[in-house]
Amino acid sequence: MSQLRFAVLGAGHGGMAMAGHLGCMGYSVRLFNRSEARLIPIRNAGGIELSGVVEGKGPVELVTSDIAEAVRDADVLMVVVPASGHRYLAAELAPHLRDGQAIILNPGRTGGAFEFRQVFKEAGVHQEVLLGEAQTLLYACRNTNPGQVKVFGIKNSVPLAALPGHQTVDLLERIHPVFPQFVPGDNVIKTGLDNIGAVFHPALMVLNAARIESTRGEFQFYFEGITKAVAQVLERVDAERVAVAAALGIRAMTAREWLYMAYDAHGKTLYQAIRNNSGYKGIQAPATIDHRYLWEDVPMSLVPIASIGETLGVATPTIRHLIGLAGLMNECDYWREGRTVERMGLAGLTQKQIRHIALEGF
Amino acid sequence: MSQLRFAVLGAGHGGMAMAGHLGCMGYSVRLFNRSEARLIPIRNAGGIELSGVVEGKGPVELVTSDIAEAVRDADVLMVVVPASGHRYLAAELAPHLRDGQAIILNPGRTGGAFEFRQVFKEAGVHQEVLLGEAQTLLYACRNTNPGQVKVFGIKNSVPLAALPGHQTVDLLERIHPVFPQFVPGDNVIKTGLDNIGAVFHPALMVLNAARIESTRGEFQFYFEGITKAVAQVLERVDAERVAVAAALGIRAMTAREWLYMAYDAHGKTLYQAIRNNSGYKGIQAPATIDHRYLWEDVPMSLVPIASIGETLGVATPTIRHLIGLAGLMNECDYWREGRTVERMGLAGLTQKQIRHIALEGF
């Protein structure tokens, strides 16, 4: 098999880490970003300098704000933008796709692959592409200086699912030689609903908004920001998410199970497991509520969960409370901006029909 | 006119202040409380010692947990219990009423008089009583030691309304010689919906829950607890309350107008008016979320506003978000515990019918 060629779409923290990492591993990589501002320092430096768990300078073949150029010869398109940018990016990509290209959302949040599929459908894309989403971003990283990224860690195991799910094996086969960290993620219902950020991020932002704004985040986000009362809310948000997954025939991981799996943190209740998670120690709150924990996680995680719930008759009152309050706080109608069943192409469908799309395709 | 005889029902901070104050003014006063525990020190001391803006020892003729004894010879029954105790107290009172007695709720929160009326109706009370509610408690006070109350202030002007409203003048005539602070409050729709505590208390508790629990209230409740994001939520809660009042033909005071009226605090927005209110300086947050700002103000202020709104087709989504989250935090279904239109005897009524009851009676 000849060497894969990559396009990385998005030059934020994650996109830079991925492009730099691919470059360091010797792959051909082109880097696209919508705005030139982020690209200039990378272009000037002729690549991306990584430090941390990956050290070295990753060459980037082309740094461009022209998406056609970026993806023309690519075998794999790695989408590394906030999920709120997925719709725009999918529409930009649509005219430039080739048969056989693979597109991986890093990550999809909830319903990213569904939204891509719907945009492609509306744009009349007839090319056969492999479309999939990762459950989370591979990297824990931060863009420290222009053209430099610090990689704190690379996750050992990240579930990846194709849409439709029967292509997951093809997608993994393609990407495994490069990223052995990807493991089979069943299907995009599972990757989309095993979204633990959806449980923690918006609730913690909303229920600590005054403290974030009045101290500029000078407190421990998980330890001081989650008390018994807040944990009651988290438990309900989590239960609603798991119930929506169950209505789609998926046994989603609970937040408590995830704390045990990811951090070895145990406890009889979610609250206890959080208190017992030393991994949360020292993590400060965001300095402002104008943060992706609200502007990405509310419209692209909570809204799709609540919207699917509504379609299937599963009540999600607590999630709706958070969507409403977050919208008031950030003066944004997240129901209008968010990933509803209409945007995912799932409006009016039954559980069976949604599962059919997720697993078998059209 | 002969000297009025009083029964004060409730021996918390407010009830003790009122009983002591009446005693100091030379009125005959009997003090009732459901539990004996609060009464024993008062009985032992033979009265209530006041300090602050009222100084002296107010004799109490009878201190009792027998409500029949307390109210038997009373001309005026001053109800000074949390609104969550109104239904119980009304039911206890019902068998012991006499024609011509006056009952004043100090205060009613939202719909207190409606709830009393409904309980009396269900209990078959046929006596002609004067029923009314004050918009707020006359006293700022605190029970400092057994049998002692510190009175920080007595409000200059507290609206009082009778149910039905045409009796407001009779009620004021009765009480004015004793409490000239009471002023005509139109009707109980107005006193019930000019409920500014409903706007501030639950929202501040819910949106600062983690900080309250993790610091035991060690922060400035209004200054640090209300930031721009939280003020956006307060603005909406206030707008929903004012809209429900408008649907009943009442022009309710906005929270911003109230800050100007009560504190001379001005500002183009609610947020600015709060920042400019020196009266909020130094007020610490409650030390726990198990506080009447939630367990009284949610079921007895927010629930009736939302429930009346629902009956009249006025949406109150923000108020509902707060009711939902507060309920999760305190593990209580406030919709079940709260003062709905059913409990107020207003279920299924039109605007016109509710106004008719409030103004004209049956």
Automatic annotation (TrEMBL), chains A, B:
Domain Opine dehydrogenase: 186-329
Keywords tagged on the record: Oxidoreductase
InterPro entries: 6-PGluconate_DH-like_C_sf, 6PGD_dom2, G3P_DH_NAD-dep_N, NAD(P)-bd_dom_sf, Opine/Lysopine_DH, Opine_DH
Record carries keyword Oxidoreductase: yes
Keyword Electron transport (UniProt): no
Any one Gene Ontology BP term: glycerol-3-phosphate catabolic process
Segments forming domain Glycerol-3-phosphate dehydrogenase NAD-dependent N-terminal: 7-104
Regions annotated as coiled coil: none
Example of a GO MF term: NAD binding
Pfam families the UniProt entry points to: NAD_Gly3P_dh_N, Octopine_DH
Residue stretches spanning the membrane: none
PANTHER family per the UniProt record, alphabetical: BLR6086 PROTEIN (PTHR38015), OPINE DEHYDROGENASE DOMAIN-CONTAINING PROTEIN (PTHR38015:SF1)
Name of the protein in its database record: Opine dehydrogenase
Lineage of origin: Bacteria, Bacillati, Bacillota, Hydrogenispora
